[in-house]
Amino acid sequence: MEIKDCVALITGGSSGLGAAALEYLVQQGARAVILDIQENKDLLDKYGEKKVIFTQADVTKEDQVGESIDKAIKHFGRINVLINCSGIGNPKMLLDKKGPMPLHFFSRVIDINLVGNFNVIRLVVEQMAKNVPNQEGERGIIINTASIGAFEGPEGQIAYAASKAGLIGMMLPMAKECAPHGIRIMTVAPGPIRTPMQDKMPDKAEACFVRFTPFPPRFGKPSEFAMLTGHIIENPMLNGECIRLDGALRVPYNLMKG
């Protein structure tokens, strides 16, 4: 699918990876819809409503997401691309000095990172299936954002790892079900990337992650994530696969003790 003239709906598009993907795609000629809780006025002012619009929604709320999709269709006529970047990643141990992890903490992470993203997917697929196919028969592409934590999550990330593993687990059956509609499903699993979420990481933890990253020995850049989403959109043979974006980082057991 060509990026130029496509319409992308980006959850979590007001900041971090979502904002980086949005800017990259718009600069390549796409139009974009931000679905987020908080508005980014700088992005909206920079590109204007002919290129970018904002829709306020909680991904876990069916009615809010439905209204956002309706607004996107009304404004731009269609949705060709969905990039799911919404999520939370607060750390919490299974057992700490206060006792076992509260069930509501685990449930909230799963509800936003997994159930919420699925909620957006199911409603967007319904609209994508109505698109006029291109010469390949393609109508849409969905890119989910997982994490290398789904494969080797560090301590304190049980809920986060479970939610991201869920995104990867539903990818292949979803790709098979969406194939008759001409819709591809892909997942990106980033390592640590310099975003507001990662900026909260303690210096000691950051140094450990960098130490175990073969090359380049640093955090990733949001622009590198954005470039990958662009390639996924343009390459029709990428389907039903998870791509790691981590500089060959493999998180060791008990990371902080190295």
Model description:
- By secondary structure, the chain is of the alpha/beta class.
- The chain is 43% helix and 17% strand.
- Helix 1 links the parallel strand 1 (7-11) and strand 2 (31-36).
- Helix 3 runs parallel beside helix 4 and helix 4 (103-128) runs parallel beside helix 6.
- It is globular.
- The mean pLDDT is 95.
Give keywords:
single chain; 258 residues; alpha/beta; seven-stranded parallel β-sheet
* Total of DSSP H or I helical runs spanning 4+ residues: 9
Query: What proportion of the residues is helical, as a percent range?
Result: 40-55%
Compute the separation of the termini in Å: 43 Å
| Rg on CA atoms, Å | 18 Å
| Helical/strand content category | alpha/beta
Instruction: Indicate the proportion of strand residues.
Output: 15-25%
Can you write the helix and strand succession as a string?
Answer: EHEHEHEEEHEHHEHHHE
Biggest beta sheet attributes: 7 strands, parallel
- Give the averaged pLDDT, no decimals: 95
Described by the principal axes of the CA atoms, the overall outline is globular
What is the strand tally? 9
